Amino acid sequence: MTVLQNTLYVTTSEAYLRLEGETVCVMIEDQKRLQVPLHHLSAFVLFDHVMLSPALLGRCAEDGRSVVWLNRSGKFSARLEGPVSGNILLRQAQFRAAEDGAQTLRIARAVVAGKLRNSRQVLMRGARETDDGDEKEALVRTAKLIANQVRKIPLAEDLDTLRGLEGDAARLYFEALPKVMKPQARAEFPFDCRNRRPPRDRFNALISFLYALVLSDCRAALETVGLDPQLGFLHAVRPGRPALALDLLEEFRAPLADRLALTLINRGQLQAGDFDEREGGAVLLNDKGRKTVIAAYQTRKQEEITHPVLKQTLPVGLLPHWQARLLARYLRQDVAHYVPYLYR
């Protein structure tokens, strides 16, 4: 159980949260393990089989507090929402843009350009940090290939072509990413390709978990601004799929999730004992590992950076909110272009 930035994370399976007056109590095996004033909390993120009392659920819905359930691997399971809020005019603009093929392609191009450029930056940073000449050369070479894909983005005339460019660049990126890992860590974190549902190795399990955390923040950011997280531009719309949140996630996969995963591994903060192997070959973070990752993620969110577009200093945790605002400005036609977040 961790309270960070007004969000209560509960990772202990079978925990039960109840409301006592204006206080949230976390009960484990009928023992009170944590007590937090309700007004200190703006969101709950619950893993595995964590339950809330009807009274607490009702207050969260009434007050507009976010409650998100994730499974053991960090995959989204459910979300509690109160009355729909937000500017209806903004949502109308979003729906008009989604029905306009040229607008959809323009936004999707920006999202993919941001994703590929940020992926390239992670590889270039790895090239600067390695002492191995051959690996440095390989990382720089892959970064150049990804840069070539970025230059092709304005020429993509439809979403399928654009997604093909993204897929090719992602394959190159993940093939090179193990070289950003310190050699002594590679035995415990072997990685040769991206796999999921379920992840088959520790590195895939780690980044899948981090992607789920960032996705939850992206969805909350879009809802706060007043956008519909279900209606995306790059990702196809499907029932129950937060397509726009997935679009926004693309910009943050490399700089927030992948880079943090590599930092945890290279600093020895995660080891093989922080993961469990399941029947069928699935690999998942265990309770200890999840707590380590959540704490590191929240620490990262509190670090301050200068936003490349706004030229303002802000916490990393607010980046999804500012990108959601920039997208809203574009949809309202307050600005001429949507500029994705660019990692430095």
Shape: globular
Poorly predicted runs are: none
Class of the largest domain, according to the CATH hierarchy? Answer: Mainly Alpha
Strands side by side in the biggest sheet: 1-2-6-8-9
Give the SSE string: EEEEEEEHEEHHHHHHHEEHEEH
Class from secondary-structure proportions = alpha/beta
Roughly how many Å is the radius of gyration?
20 Å
N- and C-termini, Cα separation = 33 Å
Count all strands and give the number: 13
Largest sheet: 5 strands, mixed
Number of helices: 10
Mean of the pLDDT scores? 90
CATH superfamily of the largest domain: CRISPR-associated endonuclease Cas1, C-terminal domain
Please report which band the strand proportion falls in: under 5%, 5-15%, 15-25%, 25-35%, 35-45% or over 45%. Answer: 15-25%
The CATH architecture of the largest domain is: Up-down Bundle
- What's the helical proportion of residues? 40-55%
Binding site for Mn(2+): 166, 235, 250
Pfam families: Cas_Cas1
EC number: 3.1.-.-
Keywords: Antiviral defense, DNA-binding, Endonuclease, Hydrolase, Magnesium, Manganese, Metal-binding, Nuclease
